[in-house]
Amino acid sequence: MTGYDCIILGGGASGLFAASMIIKLTSGKASVLVIDGNDRCGKKLALTGSGRCNLSNKNATADKYHTDDPAALEKCLGSFGSSDAVAFFEDTLGVAVVSDDGLFYPATYKASTVIDSFRFYLEESGCIFKLGSKCAKIFDKGGSYEVILEDGSSYKTRHLICATGGCTYPSTGSTGAIKTLLKGIVAQDDLVGFKPALTSLNSKMAGIKALAGIRCRGKVELTDGKTVTDSSEGEVIFSKEGGISGICVMDISGKAAAMLDKGIKPYVIVDLLGASSAKLYKMIEDRRLKFGTRNVPGALTGLMPRVLCEFVCRYKGIDPETKMSELGDKELKSLTDSVCALKIPVDGYGGADKAQVSSGGVKLSAVNGSMQYRSHKGLYIIGEALNVDGRCGGYNLQWAWSSAAAAAKGVASDV
Ligand SMILES: Cc1cc2nc3c(=O)[nH]c(=O)nc-3n(C[C@H](O)[C@H](O)[C@H](O)COP(=O)(O)OP(=O)(O)OC[C@H]3O[C@@H](n4cnc5c(N)ncnc54)[C@H](O)[C@@H]3O)c2cc1C
Q: What is the pLDDT of residue 272?
């Protein structure tokens, strides 16, 4: 059995970052083994940002995430935030980084650049890779850890970093393995079940499928029918299956999924045009004057897509063929209110194959500031395997880098 100063389980975003940082901090003295079940590293990283890799966000603060321990999250992000990550990418890995309104990308806008830069740096620094065989079992040997792979090979270390990710896009290798790998080592109470977090929502609302292909910029709010529990702004996209997606929908999807799982009916209130109700009423009223002889969708042409107008008319019990001039003020107000705040019942959410991130994993409160499991010296957990999930916009990769940096500092100070 071969021994290493550090073994990293998972060659995804957080695993590759941790390996690079340990090597940097120990000036290449630490022997590091990266194990990944795939035959190449960074398979999920390659998909990020639609292949462009939105690698961080200048506003990556704890309020952009869900976790069981916001204070610990804030501390970790404060110790190694977006500027530290960008500096590491530029100075150590040689990735030129650009900012688009505070969202950071590699200057090439290619995720493959990031993966190649990790690979070059790690291979040149003597990091060892064992690819193509998954870890099947971890043994705590009291002061050291033994990992057994599916191909029967085994490796030993004093520092084991688990960076096996969450449970979404399982085709990339992230299958929620942390739960089984750490069974018997991590207390059941320290684990939160994985759930899709950034995903699409589905509705069975009558006629909604007719909106397929509609994209509108506006605001979405999540409610149980009484209280608004979350909100976001951006593009809302309707699909032919009755799905609602877009970055702002994904942002509120985790809470909507949790409500559904608890048997609470969620509603998404969509502001379809992003205009204030008073302003929109005035615009519609003007059109009643100007284009009163047209039917309603005809009069509102240029203000909103025809199918959207027909849908809202039917929803409000107004025949779309009605002449615009025949609409009374009350109907005008009702139409305006629906466009500004369409209340869509949520009946389901996209599963692990559709979600970008999962919530759940090992509780953040169960690890210390170095991401070391409190009761097991030398056992670190980082990235999506921890119970931290962020909004869209580079926050999740920033968490991968921040948690990896914390563990790397812990390991480097002990080898
Ligand atoms: C389509 C898509 C787009 C995204 N876009 C963005 C974006 O633009 N910005 C952003 O911030 N976030 C984005 N994310 C989220 C981001 O990719 C993840 O949060 C991040 O990759 C998590 O890093 P990780 O290292 O924890 O896990 P992963 O990157 O998932 O890596 C885990 C690795 O562990 C390996 N592994 C798992 N189990 C085992 C085992 N038993 N043995 C050996 N190896 C194992 C896997 O093969 C995998 O390589 C996106 C996600 C998706 C799916």
A: 86
> Tokens standing for 52?
């462009």
Closest Cα to atom 6 of ligand 1:
48
* The ligand 1 atom nearest the CA atom of 382: 26
What domains, with CATH codes, occur in the chain? 2-197+354-412 (3.50.50.60), 200-350 (no CATH)
Cβ(106) – ligand 1 distance below 6 Å: no
**C-alpha count within 13 angstroms, C-beta hemisphere, residue 218:** 24
Asked if pLDDT for residue 239 goes beyond 90, the answer is: no
Q: Can you give the pLDDT at residue 274?
A: 79
CA-164 nearest atom, ligand 1 = 34
- CA quadruple 180, 357, 101, 228: dihedral positive or negative? negative
Residues 199/202/207/211 CA torsion (nearest 10 deg): 10
Q: Could you report the per-residue pLDDT of 183-206, keeping only the tens digit for each?
A: 999 999 999 999 999 999 999 999
Q: Whose CA is nearest to atom 4 of ligand 1?
A: 48
The string of pLDDT tens digits covering residues 245-258 is: 999 999 999 899 98
How far does residue 98's CA lie from ligand 1's centre (Å)? Answer: 22
Residue 1 pLDDT > 80, yes or no? no
- Look up residue 119 and give its two tokens: 């690979």
Ligand 1 pocket test, pick from 167, 396, 401, 403 with the greatest ligand atom count within 8 Å of Cβ, gives 396
Atom of ligand 1 nearest to the CA of 17: 25
The backbone torsions φ and ψ at residue 191, rounded to the nearest 5 degrees and listed phi first, read -110, 135
Mind listing the pLDDT tens digit for each residue in 255-276? Answer: 999 899 999 999 999 988 877 8
What count of residues does the chain have?
A: 415
The response to whether residue 400 sits with its C-beta less than 6 Å from ligand 1 reads yes
**Cα separation, 133 vs 88, whole angstroms:** 30
Q: Is the CB of 397 under 6 A from ligand 1?
A: yes
The predicted model scores a pTM of 0.91
Q: Does residue 242 surpass a pLDDT of 90?
A: no
Contact 52, 189 (CB under 8 A): no
Residues paired with 105 in a beta bridge: 98
Determine the atom of ligand 1 nearest the C-alpha atom of 172. Answer: 47
Question: Whole-angstrom Cα distance, residue 121 to residue 50?
Answer: 24
